[in-house]
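Let's do one together. I've listed all components of the complex below, 311 residues spread over two lines.
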Amino acid sequence: MEQFAPVNRSKDGQPVRYLIVDDSVFARKNLARMVESFGGQVAGEAGDGLTAISEFDRTHPDIVLMDITMPQMEGIEAAEKIVQAHPEARVVMVSSVGYQENIVAALQRGARHFVQKPVKPEVLYEVIKYVLGEDGAVANAAGSGI
Amino acid sequence: MKMELIQPFINSADAVLSQGLQGTTQVASLSMEEDGYRRKGVAGMVALSGDVEGRIILDLDPQTALRVASHYAGAELPESDELIRETIFELANQVVGNAVSALNDQGFHFRVHPPLLLTSNEGDRSSEDVEALMICFETSLGNVFMNVALRYNKRRMADHAAAGQ
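Okay, and this is what the predicted structure of the assembly comes out as:
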């Protein structure tokens, strides 16, 4: 997989921590490989929206990558509940169902961005940088990240 | 079955497979499944409900499924690996999700259900209002079969028409 300049947390130079939520093991592994190629760290994984909420409380990730169509609780509802409890949470929806209604609903209920599957690493990388804003820093050649 | 419903699934499968397998993909054959569905190997089924109802099956013979899953995993997987099934599920999900997104933008409203493993060797025959199409995609790792069976939900469509949507 293509390697990217690491994106770290600007406050302490540590790797960005991700919670990956998808009912597909395949999709979780794929996203994990991508965020690791961005220099990130997988803080937790969940296979449904309900588990995502408890994993968020346990791991306090910098970014949540959230699928939409999942059993028990769908991603948009889980995103809303996480953002209600943690307004600072950065949730990026990652779904193959990318029609306008879904995207608008996700953004209205607290998601920061939407990425359509199949995910292109270069697209996700740019979205991560955008969503982190000043809280993220692309590491220089020396890898300081600050 | 109207091509306006089928074409988005063909386009989506072509795009998902081309991108994922990093090679060219082409439609090798397209035929009506008049004698009922016969499973080829590892098959994931995604059901749709809403303005159009039905299901899409992505089906790969076991060796092709193994090659495709190993490609995505970036390592040779054992033949019995659970990740093979998961890979086919996710591919089916992506194909359907992208097609549904295109159809939704044309005014069709759907609900996509999570993928299921198809275990029976044979499926339903086509009927008067449900036609099944089998599309075979040639990829660098082998043939990928997509079976599409859809029908208009006349009641839902009538409701939309009455509401002026």
